[in-house]
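Notebook, student rotation project (T.W.).
Task set for the rotation: take a protein with a known small-molecule partner, predict the structure of the complex, and write up what can be learned from the model alone. Partner molecule chosen: zinc ion. Sequence and SMILES entered below by T.W., checked by me.
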Amino acid sequence: MRYELMLPREIRAAIDGNWPVVLAVGVLEYHGEHMAVGMDTLAVVRILEILETDANLVILPPFSYGAASYAVEPPEGTGTLHVDAEALMPLAKAMFTGLLRIGFRNIHLVIHHQTENFAAGMPTDLAFKLAARQAIFAFLEAQRGEGWWGAKSMADYYEQQSTGGDPFNWIKAHPLMPSSLMEGYPFDHAGQGETSLLMALLPEGVDISRISEDQWYSRSAREATLELGLQGRDRILAHLRKALGVERANAQGARN
Ligand SMILES: [Zn+2]
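Predicted structure of the complex:
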């Protein structure tokens, strides 16, 4: 369900059912002459919309104003809109604090921009990941007081780590395409992989007649096909079903 359309009754049911609450984090960045600047955010949004048709999922309004960087092209006339990671951090921390205050404990963010080495991180995802950690620490201290971790009741902390019982599992970050997926699908910027994917997810975001020969990174877009994009889409869906813990055709939950 789209969060902004939910009634308080449905929000309470989603909290009780521990539904995943998912935020698409992305950027507005030049993706060659043939692709929409919102590619990195739009791809995540479309995938979440598909997942939501057969799973209990809360989709937050997407966040598009990440740290795009001007590494690909300068902004003048290209459409790249960059916001520094330092500015994102307090905003993201406030958003996560708000979501924890509402009662959500199964929060996820999904990002596609600059995720080729997700473990090391890049400014946008690092800002959101650090913000998530800081929001959780502050929330726990406000709720339980200092010394909460050392308290006797936390003696099973290390056993709880792999499950939802660990508070640091309340907010998780996932790349749209993990490294395992990249082994069989081209990861690129505005090239064959991204162009194929957007053809499958949002065809109006692609105009293949505009592919430019001038830029090395978008040249491979000439080999983009709908078929490849559909393969990428299905592999992403399988990866995120697992990452978010949502099953197909889950009939139970707040919808009833
Ligand atoms: Zn991209």
